[in-house]
Amino acid sequence: MNTYLGALTIAAMLASTPAAFAQDATEETTAEIATEQAAPAADAAAEDAAPVADAAPAEDAPAEGLVDQLDTGEEQPAEAPGEQSQTYIREEIGDWDLQCLRAEEGEEPCQMYQLLTDGQGNSVAEVSIFRVKNGGQVQAGGTFVVPLETLLTQKLSISVDGGQPKRYDFTLCNPIGCYARVGFTADDVNRFKRGNVAKITIVPALAPDQKVVVDMSLSGFTDSYGKTSELAN
Description:
Blueprint lengths: L24 H31 L31 E7 L2 E6 L8 E8 L5 E11 L4 E9 L9 E5 L5 E3 L3 E3 L2 E9 H9 L2 E6 L9 E6 L3 H7 L2 E3 L1
Parallel strand pairs: 4-12
Antiparallel strand pairs: 1-2, 2-3, 3-4, 4-5, 5-9, 6-7, 6-10, 8-9, 10-11
């Protein structure tokens, strides 16, 4: 923050010249008279200047109405313990987490969640699955989040235990990543329940000739799926 300071400087300069010695008394008398007349004038000037010096501090006073335009802020109440996050892990079932949203009253909505990593343990994607009520052929919904550097036109593919893969479009991207919101049919859900592992495949935008494949473990899928909330269509 820059601070601008104003200062008023008053400089008085007095110039005096040594008086030349007059060669006659008339010049000396004239100089004395002039000096006597100048003294009262200097005193009067000093008296007139005094109020100006007294009034100088008024220049530091804020302009009228300026203070009314300034916001001095207000105290923000601290968050109570536990309010920082509205979601929590209620239960770990196999390789899935039962992730629930806190609710002051009524049933807390829950979904099953898994973080997908590569062979070196690096996070590559995440998936959450929930049941759908009155969704017609769609029995469950899922959300996959993948890195921003994903080639979206190549879509996201899922295959279970080496079976025929299914491809799904990406819906949107934001600073967190790119999202594929998918609908699973009853056959899809049954394959997940019977299977051991699902292969999730994406294509990196910087290397379109390569594929990134991560495992989605199906251990604990059936029990986790039964405990998820059934969301109305």
